[in-house]
Amino acid sequence: MSEMILQAENICFSYEEDGRRALDNVNLSIKRGSKVAFMGANGSGKSTFFLCLNGIHRPDSGTLYLNGKPFDYSKKGLLDIRRRVGIVFQDPDNQLFSASVSQEISFGILNLGVPEGRAKEEVDGVIERLTITPFRDKPTHALSGGQKKQVSIADILVMHPDVIILDEPASALDPKHTRIVNELVNQLSQEGITILMATHDIDYACAWADEIVLMHDGNVLKQGTPAEVCRDTDALEKTNLEEPMAVRIYRKLCAKGVLGPAEDMPVSMKELEQSIDKIGKDRKSE
User: Fold this and answer.
1) Considering only Cβ atoms within 10 Å of each terminal Cβ, which end of the chain, N or C, has fewer?
2) Which residue ranges form the domains of the chain, and what is each CATH number?
C-alpha cells in the first residue's frame, strides 16, 4: 500500500463565471495518517482544492490519486471517493438538510447501500460517541452552531472514512465547542485517519500539524513541517501570516541572552517550554 493516501498532479480548476484559475497547477502529496494544516489568505484555493479532493469539483486538468489510483468520476466511483474522503464544510448549514439529526446522520450511510439494521447501529454508535444523544431527534435547523458542527462531523464519521477534511472547523464556535471539536479531531488522528484542516490560526497549526501547506493564488507556495514553514518568513508574509507566538517569544529571549540560537527553533509553546526547561536543568547540573 502506498505511503501516500492522496496525491495531486498539476491540478487546475476554474469557475465558469470568471474563467480565472482558482487552482493553478497544484502538486502535492499527503501521507497516510498525517495531520496537515492548509493555510493561506481567503481566495488562495484551499476550499476549492478540498472540493476537488471530495469529488464535488472535477479538475479541468491534472490528476488526483487516492491510494495510488486515479480518481474515478463514474457514479460508483464518486460514491466511493465521498465515502473514503469526507468533508466537513465551514458553514454547517451548507451540509445539513434532513428533518432531524438522526435522519441527517443516516442519509449518507444508507445512500451507500448499507442495510437499515446495520446503519442504525452505526448511527447510534456515532451519536453516542459525539455526545449528541440529547438532541438526536431535534430538527437540524434548531441546533446551535456548535451542535451543527458536531452533527456535520457525525455525518462523515458514520461512513468510516480514510480521510476527513475540515474547512475552518472552529469558525464561529464558542470556546466550549471549539474544545470539543479539537479533542475529537485528535482522537480521529490517533485512530489513523488522515486529517486535512484549513485554519487561519498559525499557533494551533504549529502545535497540531505534522505538515503545513501554504497556499497562494491557487498554488502551493510551501509544504513542510511547522518548523520548515515558519523559517520561511517570505512565504509567511505572502500568505498574510505572522510568525507563531512561540517564535516571537523565542526571538526576544535570544535577544536578551536567555536562550541561544538553536537549529531546531521552537514553533509551538510546548516546544518553547521544553527549551526553557532544558536551560534550567543544564544550569542545575553545572
Assistant:
1) C
2) 4-232 (3.40.50.300), 244-286 (no CATH)
pLDDT average, residue stretch 210-231 = 95
From CA 43, how far away is CA 231, in angstroms rounded? 24
Residue 94 reports pLDDT greater than 90: no
What is d(CA 241, CA 205) in angstroms, rounded to the nearest whole number? 12
For 94, residues 6+ apart whose C-beta sits below 8 A from its C-beta are none
Single pTM value for the model: 0.91
Task: Specify whether the CB–CB gap between 70 and 61 falls below 8 A.
Answer: no
Which residue's C-alpha cell is 479538475?
59
Of 88 and 172, the structure prediction assigns the larger pLDDT to 88
Nearest to 215 by CA among 229, 227, 204, 203: 229
Q: Any idea which residue has 502535492 for its cell?
A: 28
DSSP H or E run through 221: strand 219-224
Query: Which residues, 6+ apart, have CB-to-CB distance to 154 below 8 Å?
Result: 105, 126, 127, 130, 132
What does the alpha-carbon distance between residue 242 and residue 250 come to, in Å, rounded to a whole number?
Answer: 14
Position 263 scores a pLDDT of: 63
List, in order, residues 6 or more apart from 122 with CB less than 8 Å away: 109, 114, 158
CA atoms within 13 A on the CB side of 172: 12
Distance (Å, rounded) from C-alpha 204 to C-alpha 270? 11
Q: What is the pLDDT of residue 72?
A: 97
**C-alpha neighbours within 13 Å on the C-beta side of residue 176:** 4
